[in-house]
Amino acid sequence: MRQNKDPLPTSTKFCFLFDLKPSVGYYINVEYIVWILLMLSSINLEIECIEKKDLLEFENVLRQDLYYTIIFGKAEPIPHENARSSVIFLNTVLVVVFLLYFLFTPFLLVGILRSSPNMFIPYLIYDIIMINLSGCFFIIALIVWNLRMFWICFIFFILKLNSSIGVFSLYKECGGIVNDESDVSFTSGLSTATTMESICEVVNV
Fold first, then answer.
1. pTM of the complete model
2. Which residues cross the membrane (predicted)?
């Protein structure tokens, strides 16, 4: 029989200082507000970018958009339509990222409120995937020496790793199990034989 292998370390304190359950709950609520703001900003930029067919108007949209400036930096001149399409595509990816967090976080908040570990699963799985991806992009940023990408990925990685350790610790404190013999569900009414460990193995965690 294989030994238990947790996808994340655990802690009895959030940030090693605060009581686990209330601190995780407060943090996730604040984080949820941030996800909503980012999602709305990214969707608004996406709509404006798609509407602006003229490259000069498109550049002006990027220069005036605070969200774009924070995430991507000062807008550079857009030389051709392919560059415009690349910006739209990249922002589309971020729209999906923010939207999924927006959808999964309420499950987690209900799980924390009801001490139901099954409700933690969607958020935890997505968090683990995003931690791995941000780590990969962090390494890419080092290779290509993109300082903005480096710092964004680094900050995101640290924040998500810290919060995920807290969420996973609370998941286990609420009775969550990580082994091959446990049945965990993505929602309280949906049963599946897929465990946290097997899912993490699929995404190479």
1. 0.73
2. 26-45, 88-112, 124-144, 151-171
Q: Which among 126, 120, 151, 116 has a CA at the least distance from the CA of 137?
A: 151
Cα dihedral sign for 13, 17, 21, 24?
A: negative
Beta bridge partners of 204: none
Comparing C-alpha atoms, which of 91, 35, 36 is closest to residue 58?
91
Strand partners, 190: 187
Structure tokens at 180: 């091959």
The long-range contacts involving 198-205, CB below 8 angstroms and separated by at least 24 positions, are 199/125, 200/7, 200/125, 200/128, 203/125, 203/128, 203/129, 203/132, 204/132, 205/7, 205/128, 205/132
Q: Which of 16-20, 47-51, 71-75, 131-135 bottoms out in mean pLDDT, i.e. has the lowest? A: 16-20
